[in-house]
Specification:
Blueprint: H1 8-15, H2 19-31, E1 35-37, E2 52-54, E3 60-66, E4 70-77, E5 82-89, H3 97-115, E6 122-126, E7 129-131, E8 134-137, H4 149-157, E9 164-168, H5 169-176, E10 188-193, E11 197-203, E12 206-208, H6 239-242, H7 244-251, H8 256-264, H9 268-292, E13 296-301, H10 302-305, H11 307-321, E14 331-334, H12 341-356, H13 369-372
Parallel strand pairs: 3-6, 6-9, 10-13, 13-14
Antiparallel strand pairs: 1-2, 3-4, 4-5, 7-8, 10-11, 11-12
Length: 376
């Protein structure tokens, strides 16, 4: 069903199951309003059929994001379509988890009320390294260090801790390009550009996390030694040259909107700042690609907005710095999801789990409006 509507006969052909088996599996899903039937199609060959698709009013998952500069939520259906999105700008750099998590819980309550049904679960994206639900390290939101934000969020919402799954924001943004549809092939790096720079590495269609989950910390690749000090404790990290704050500082602009306005009007200082950032980012990516040999780089986050101005310098660095580029150019693309890739991927963490474990798609209990909003 992830590939689009299909008749019972088509599903039997795709899966190798008998038509009777497919029918026995489909009927409960129709009754539970997980699937729905389309209009009768008559192709002129064989019996007319009714294509099956995920029901628009069927189960949903929530993707939530704690970012350095904002909080965001997305409600997503099983087919990957979006039912509700919301984002609020808030500076979390010096905030404690006790302040951040309740604000996010309020956003999630709004999302649940908007969709009118209990979600399958909540995927939570954080800008740091996560191990078994604990934020091990997040230099740009230190209030989350050593915290289990998923457990705190579940408690605020009155839900079991197992309802909330936590992962790194770049990993989840990369997942949005894998599930439910392969948007960027089987081997790619998704680069999330904001205050920090994270990378989600996908090899063979699967996320590469490394032994301890530290894979993809592109922002802390050293490109200058000695170089600018970084909150991580090192010097010369690429995020100090290509992160959004570094670009804004060099361009002398207060925010991304002001930077984009300046770029559109040919501001030389802004153009130079973005070009310099592209060179730094491209140098770091060239080192990464020389090691893992992926075919595609996908730029997201603030890099999606800056893509047209950033891409030329990145492409130049990739063409000269990647050994494999002499035989096959590296594809540099813009994320189709823009600023929503992280929350979409966080929701996909839940929908993927549910589709791979169909018992999790059992109908949620019917809740009153008050219960949906977390009221006693």
């Amino acid at each position: 069903m992830l590939d689009g509507p299909a008749s019972r006969a088509e599903l039997a052909q795709r899966t190798g199951l008998t038509k009777a088996t497919v029918a026995s599996l489909v009927e409960p899903l129709l009754q539970q309003q997980i699937l729905a039937e389309g209009a009768v199609l008559n192709t002129g060959r064989g019996r007319p059929s009714r294509p099956l698709h995920f029901a628009a009013a069927g189960p949903v998952a929530i993707g939530a994001e704690i970012n350095v500069r904002h909080l965001a939520v997305t409600v997503q259906r099983l087919d990957g379509s979006t039912e509700f999105e919301q984002r609020i700008e808030v500076d979390n750099r010096h905030a404690a988890a006790a302040d951040i998590v309740p604000r996010l819980a309020d956003l999630i309550r709004t999302a649940i009320a908007a969709c009118g049904r209990d979600p399958l679960g909540i995927g939570l994206a954080v800008p740091g390294i996560v191990q078994d639900g604990t934020v091990v390290y997040t230099p740009n939101v230190p209030g989350l260090n050593g915290i289990r934000p998923g457990d705190q969020l579940a408690a605020d919402l009155g839900r079991p801790a197992t309802d909330v799954a936590v992962d790194n924001e770049a990993n989840l943004a990369a997942l949005a390009h894998v599930w439910p549809h392969r948007m960027s092939g089987d081997d790619f790096v998704y680069v999330s550009g904001d205050v920090g720079i994270g990378a989600g590495i996908v090899i063979g269609g699967a996320m590469f996390r490394g032994r301890s989950g530290f894979a993809g910390e592109l922002g802390h690749v050293t490109i200058a030694r000695p170089g600018r000090p970084c909150p991580c404790g090192s010097h010369g990290c690429v995020e100090q040259y290509a992160g959004l704050h570094a670009i804004l500082r060099t361009a002398a602009k207060r925010n991304l909107d002001a930077l984009l306005h300046a770029l559109d009007h040919g501001d030389i200082r802004a153009l130079t700042a973005v070009e310099t950032a592209g060179e730094a980012l491209g140098a770091a990516l060239a080192s990464l690609i020389n090691i893992c040999d992926v075919a595609t780089v996908v730029l997201g986050g603030s890099y999606a907005a800056l893509f047209d101005h950033l891409a030329p310098a990145v492409r130049t660095e990739l063409s000269t710095g990647v050994l494999a580029a002499t035989r096959r150019p590296i594809q540099l693309t813009l994320s189709a999801f823009g600023s929503t890739a992280v929350t979409r991927g966080a929701a996909a963490l839940i929908t993927r789990r549910s589709c791979l474990e169909p018992n999790l798609l059992l109908p949620p209990k019917q809740l009153t409006t008050g219960e949906l909003l977390g009221e006693s």
